[in-house]
Automatic annotation (TrEMBL):
ARM repeats lie at residues 262-306, 305-347. Gene3D superfamilies: Leucine-rich Repeat Variant (1.25.10.10). Pfam families: Arm (PF00514), ARM_PUB (PF25598), DUF7032 (PF23005). This is Vacuolar protein 8-like. PANTHER family: ARM REPEAT SUPERFAMILY PROTEIN. Residues 153-354 form the U-box domain. Keywords: Repeat. It comes from Populus euphratica. Residues 5-114 form the DUF7032 domain.
Length: 557
């Protein structure tokens, strides 16, 4: 009787013997690949007693007989002693077919129940400092178990595989290099055993996170099985599939394949279902967001009701769902006015304002995302800005300018800065709301960028006559500007911005009077003498008409 160990040794020896062969290189490589597959399968059977399994014993005898014939062919190719090329090519094709048949037969007897957990030897996982060859051997053993093992062996092999690939990126590289392992994972996604499907989806999700291996997964036909998992898999399987698709569709080249397999419909169904968990909805939104870059797919999404579906999700109590849905709305409408109008009609702008509302229970991250979306979708149109004002957005923005966390406050300042560059009506509304007194407080911030934004925004607001009068009514505003001007170094950027604001205030009688009667005029004159930008203009403005005498008295006292 022939043992499994004997078969492994013979095949390993044959593989080594065939490597130096120079002729018919392609055909010998195909034979070696099949021999390695057989060797990997037999390794999993090594502790199975072939004497007690007559079918297996007969299988091993047939494999050894074929190996012996192959040795003869290999010897003749090494010695170049074959009678003709065509005949040798035919003999090699026959030999490959034999080994392929052996592999299929071995698979058949194992899946029929002959190979079980009790019969298979367990290959221990190599240690942390193991070489690549040891890891390859371990992965081949896991591959064999996934291919020919019973349900429990498959499940345990997938669990072990997942534990390894999440631990070290280098292991993922070795895994992908092991032939057929990706194809097996793809096939297991269609398993009727939900537990097997779940574990396979988890492993695929890890591999799909590596840019280098996304093309390998796509080439193995991963998209179709992933979509089928979304349609009929368990909740855990769906989560793994959605995460994989989100990573794979970061490259828009893969968008069409997702759409072709019905992925958009399946993803929208997940987003619509009240039973879908956060861990599933978030990556589903992420996939949809990645697909909107393809115009035809975007149109299909709109026809399928994606906009109202995602607007509804923006009102979720879960931060991750809110952020994912808002990102989608921002992407789908960012460069398309017709979609932006649809978002507005469906209540999208109102939904974003509700998320931003300080009275809501939303997190800072959700508010930040909502504010960015509001800026991108609404600030380009006077009509949308009016809509925002009607929804109370100005009061919300002012609140966060006064009381927000640093990150939200900075975004609020940037938003206020952008709004100040819009219409006269918007500037009036901001003046009435109380933005000017808050912007003044940012003029002595440590960051020059913050000081600059505040100064430019304030200068824009006080260019409106109504706002100028309101601003100078508070003596502290003008006094603070002059005090900052006195502190700033000559020719600094901040000093120039402060002078530009004061120039705007001189267009108002009360503003000119307050500046002229302050105790900072000598400083302003020195700046003019130092050729500081606009300082001379400021002096001339203050020196005209009835203010000339006041100025002379003050300057010569």
């Amino acid at each position: 009787m022939c043992s499994v160990r004997q078969a492994i040794e013979v095949i390993s020896s044959l593989i080594s013997y065939s490597h130096p062969i120079k002729v018919f290189a392609v055909k010998w490589q195909l034979i070696r690949n099949k021999l390695e597959e057989l060797c990997s399968s037999l390794t999993a059977l090594e502790n199975c007693d072939s004497i007690q399994n007559p079918i297996l014993s007969g299988m091993i005898s047939a494999i050894l007989a074929s190996a012996s014939d192959c040795y003869d062919l290999a010897r003749r190719c090494v010695d170049l002693s074959y009678s003709g090329k065509l005949l040798m090519q035919s003999d090699l094709d026959v030999m490959f077919a034999k080994f392929e048949r052996h592999a299929k037969n071995l698979f058949g007897i194992c899946t029929a129940g002959i190979l079980t957990q009790g019969f298979a030897i367990v290959v221990s996982r190599p240690g942390d400092n193991a070489c690549k060859d040891d890891m390859r051997f371990y992965f081949r053993d896991l591959l064999t178990r996934m291919k020919i093992g019973d349900l429990e062996m498959k499940r345990q092999a997938l669990l072990n595989l997942y534990d390894v690939v999440v631990e070290d990126d280098e292991y993922v590289k070795i895994l992908v290099e092991v032939g057929d392992i990706v194809n097996i994972l793809v096939s297991l996604l269609d398993s009727v055993e939900l537990e097997i499907q779940q574990e396979a989806a988890k492993v695929v999700s890890v591999i799909s996170g590596f840019d280098s291996y996304k093309s390998v997964l796509i080439g193995a036909g991963i998209v179709g099985p992933l979509i089928r998992v979304l349609e009929s898999g368990s909740e855990i399987s769906k989560e793994g599939a959605a995460r994989s698709l989100q990573k794979l569709t970061e490259n828009s080249d893969n968008a069409w394949s997702v759409s072709a397999y019905g992925g958009v419909t399946a993803l929208l169904k997940i987003c619509t279902s009240a039973d879908s968990r956060t861990a599933l909805v978030c990556p589903a939104c992420g996939v949809l967001r990645n697909l909107v870059g393809v115009d035809e797919i975007k149109r299909f999404m709109i026809e399928e009701g994606a906009v109202p579906t995602l607007i509804k999700l923006a009102g979720s109590k879960d931060e991750a769902v809110q952020i994912s849905s808002i990102e989608f709305l921002q992407n789908i409408a960012s460069v398309d006015e017709s979609v932006r109008q649809l978002v507005a009609r469906e209540g999208g702008i109102r939904a974003l304002v509700r998320v931003f509302d300080p009275k809501s229970a939303c997190t800072s991250k959700s508010r930040e995302m909502a504010l960015r979306a509001i800026e991108n979708l609404c600030f380009s149109s006077a009509g949308y800005i009016i809509m925002l004002m009607n929804y109370g957005f100005m009061d919300q923005l002012l609140f966060f300018l006064r009381n927000g966390d640093v990150s939200v406050q900075e975004l609020a300042l940037k938003a206020a800065f952008r709004l100040c560059g819009k219409s006269e009506e918007t500037k009036k509304a901001m003046g009435d709301a109380g933005f000017m007194s808050e912007l003044v407080k940012f003029l002595d911030a440590k960051s020059f960028e913050v000081r600059e934004m505040a100064a430019v925004a304030l200068s824009s607001l006080v260019s409106v006559p109504k706002n100028r009068k309101r601003f100078v009514q508070d003596d502290r505003n003008v006094g603070f500007l002059l005090q900052l001007l006195d502190q700033e170094e000559a020719n600094s950027g901040s000093k120039k911005l402060l002078i530009s604001i004061l120039l705007s205030l001189t267009s108002c009688n009360s503003g000119r009077k307050k500046i002229a009667s302050s105790g900072y005029l000598k400083n302003i004159e020195k700046l003019a003498e130092a050729e500081v930008s606009d300082a001379k203009r400021l002096v001339r403005k203050l020196s005209t008409n009835r203010f000339r005498s006041i100025l002379n008295v003050i300057l010569h006292s």
